[in-house]
């Protein structure tokens, strides 16, 4: 199961670390790049509501394999797009396939979680962050060796396809979450809506860091390509460390405290990253941001997946539709604001999302019925 999270993180991490190159190659402004990234959000938003029904019919195992394969096939074309008009539909396919992959692997992860007495979901998400680090590190190495972005992403996708197939082969049987009682798609209301809004805020923050970290280091602080990619990779590694430690932290301290403290750390790290005109200190700030972001989404996904009265994948599909719309739609908003103010100001505004999560951590934790 962890292999699927790794593949998703590595594929996205490699492409995101190349965003400064795409911006420069196509001579895009921040707002134009933001508009292109908006198509990823549209891809996720228009296809993720179908994920619950697909999982009910085929099982999360095959949804993860099919969508993950499409994602790896499409990613190299992001590097090959000759214009903004071609880039936009390619990014739509990236968003659509990544959205289905996310719902599939998270639904299956909850089935695996049900077989363990202690929380393990944060550790699984940790492998997504390890993948992000591997993708960023691979981009930095490719830039250092003079390998072109298209060649790098083609090779990376082929290697990751092998990991994907091996990971799917080790997953639980296909019928583990094909059936379930309750509606197959949950309209966002009540507890689903509340969790969806919090996931929206968390993933807006995570999406902003993923898509704009390397661009900020390259554009605002004039870091070299490999340094900008390294900064993104280090933020992903920091997130991985936080997620691997998150299950034991949650077990000791409870969901409410972990949610609150993580949200506050995320906001503080982001403000540090964009308010100091120093590449090393900015990288430290993004690393703290990654550490804070680490456990927000796993906890909120766990709450959504265990809502009573919904079939497997339905509550999670509804919440992730809202959340991943923000993950992919937040960066375009950042780009729009950055073009009219500055990238530092636009990223700094994301800190207010983290404050809202901290203020609502008690309500989110209550849905998990942990007694904390």
Could you characterize the architecture of this molecule?
With 372 residues, this protein is mainly alpha-helical. It has one domain (2-366): Growth Hormone, Chain: A (Up-down Bundle). The protein is 81% helix and 0% strand. The chain has 17 helices and no strands. It has helices at residues 2-17, 19-25, 30-47, 51-58, 60-80, 84-113, 121-145, 149-169, 190-219, 225-253, 255-275, 279-293, 296-305, 314-340, 343-349, 351-359, 361-366. Helix 4 (51-58) packs across helix 5 (60-80), helix 7 runs antiparallel to helix 10 and helix 11 (255-275) packs antiparallel against helix 12.
Structural features:
MFS_trans_sf, MFS_Transporter, 372 residues, 17 helices, Growth Hormone, Chain: A, 0% strand, membrane, Major facilitator superfamily MFS_1
State the gist of this model.
The chain crosses the membrane at residues 36-55, 62-87, 126-147, 154-172, 192-215, 227-245, 265-288, 300-327, 333-358. The protein has 17 helices and no strands.
The appropriate CATH architecture is Up-down Bundle
| CATH level-4 homologous superfamily | MFS general substrate transporter like domains
- What is the end-to-end distance? 29 Å
Strand content: under 5%
- Radius of gyration from the alpha-carbon trace, in angstroms: 19 Å
Number of domains: 1
What fold name goes in the CATH topology slot?
Growth Hormone, Chain: A
The low-pLDDT segments are none
Query: How many alpha or pi helices?
Result: 17
What average pLDDT do the residues reach?
Answer: 85
Order of helices and strands: HHHHHHHHHHHHHHHHH
Shape: globular
Oligomer: single chain
What is the CATH level 1 assignment? Mainly Alpha
Tell me the structural class: mainly alpha
Report helical residue fraction: over 70%
Major sheet details = none
Transmembrane segments: 36-55, 62-87, 126-147, 154-172, 192-215, 227-245, 265-288, 300-327, 333-358
Protein name: Major facilitator superfamily MFS_1
Organism: Fimbriimonas ginsengisoli Gsoil 348
InterPro entries: MFS_trans_sf, MFS_Transporter
């Amino acid at each position: 199961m962890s292999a699927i999270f790794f593949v998703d993180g590595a594929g996205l991490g490699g492409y995101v670390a190349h965003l400064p190159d795409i911006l420069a190659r196509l001579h895009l402004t921040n707002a134009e790049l933001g508009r292109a990234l908006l198509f990823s959000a549209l891809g996720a938003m228009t296809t993720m509501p179908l994920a619950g029904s697909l999982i009910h019919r085929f099982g999360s195992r095959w949804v993860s394999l099919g969508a993950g394969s499409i994602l790896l096939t499409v990613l190299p074309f992001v590097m090959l797009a000759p214009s903004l008009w071609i880039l936009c539909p390619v990014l739509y396919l990236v968003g659509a396939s990544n959205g289905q992959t996310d719902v599939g692997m998270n639904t299956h992860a909850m089935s695996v979680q049900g077989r363990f007495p202690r929380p393990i979901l944060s550790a699984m998400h940790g492998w997504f962050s390890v993948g992000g680090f591997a993708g960023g590190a691979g981009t930095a190495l490719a830039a250092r060796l003079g390998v072109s972005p298209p060649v790098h992403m083609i090779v990376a996708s082929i290697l990751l396809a092998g990991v994907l197939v091996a990971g799917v082969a080790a997953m639980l049987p296909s019928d583990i979450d094909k059936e379930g009682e309750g509606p197959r798609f949950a309209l966002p209301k009540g507890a689903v809506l509340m969790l969806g809004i919090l996931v929206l805020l968390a993933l807006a923050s995570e999406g902003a860091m993923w898509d704009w970290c390397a661009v900020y280091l390259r554009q605002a602080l004039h870091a070299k390509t490999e340094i900008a990619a390294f900064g993104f990779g280090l933020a992903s590694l920091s997130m991985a460390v936080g997620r691997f430690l998150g299950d034991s932290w949650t077990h000791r301290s409870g969901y409410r405290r972990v949610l609150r403290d993580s949200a506050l750390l995320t906001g503080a790290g982001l403000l540090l990253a964009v308010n100091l005109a120093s590449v090393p200190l900015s990288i430290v700030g993004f690393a703290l941001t990654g550490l804070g972001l680490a456990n927000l989404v796993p906890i909120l996904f766990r709450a959504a997946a265990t809502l009573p009265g919904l079939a497997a994948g339905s509550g999670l599909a509804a919440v992730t539709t809202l959340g991943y719309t923000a993950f992919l739609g937040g960066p375009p908003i950042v780009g729009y604001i950055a073009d009219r103010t500055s990238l530092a100001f636009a990223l700094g505004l994301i800190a207010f999302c983290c404050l809202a999560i901290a203020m609502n951590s008690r309500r989110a934790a209550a849905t998990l019925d942990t007694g904390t």
